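Record 1 of the preview.
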Amino acid sequence: MLFEILPDALLDAVLDTLKLIPFLFLAYLLIEVIEHHAEDKTVALIHRAGAWGPAIGSALGVIPQCGFSAATANLFAGGLITRGTLIAVFLSTSDEMLPIMISKNAPAGFILKVLAYKFIAGMIAGFIIDVVERRIGRHSEKDPHDICEQEGCNCEDGVLRSALFHTVKITVFLFITSLLINIAVELLGEEHLANFILNKPVIGELLAGLIGLIPNCAASVIITDLYLQGGLSAGAMLAGLLVGAGVGLLVLFRMNRRNQKENLITLGLLYVFGVVFGLLGSPLF
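->
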């Protein structure tokens, strides 16, 4: 049966993906322009944020910029920002959500609502974590290390080349995701597939949160695409996108490798707050 449905599923995936390429490229071009003019300033600002770190970090995390979560993970590993600020950035970071939603013509009001919710969730979680950690007296003095690129980010290759690189990379992910979704829909039926996920309000958020922990852009691609195709509930979508921090977790575990216990605590807090705010935000969307 799989071989019977594969040609149609493959053709649909190719056509769906090709239609998105111009929009993806324009979205990434805009993001690259913003990133090249703002990233150094935003990293410096979050470094100097002090007690307001979670609020400033959450606000800056919403701005699409290459490698910001990686840069803040590096600052945390160097003892220059608090865990609350780091979690705030991770929760608010959109990774590939924004260009995919733009390319698929998601309503502007909906996109802004998601971004605003991610900002609020990140800020609240960050302040809670910092208050608790100040009470237990956490303090760290380390030397920071600068990270410019992670996983071939190519942020210094120029606006056009970097935008093209991201477009090609995400196009591949989108094609694979669309193909797998098309096959699943054909095998299980669209209604059964949607009901299987949507009828599990808590399990859906827990599973989406685990997918969001995948430390690259594949996680946000899968979650955003599934939601826009009606295969994922709003709460699960929020949980997955809140937890998804791009390559930030990879950088954290690499640069802070001498303190893996601290890294695991950060990972656990990110997952718990992502799932909780996913559940809380579900009725709002």
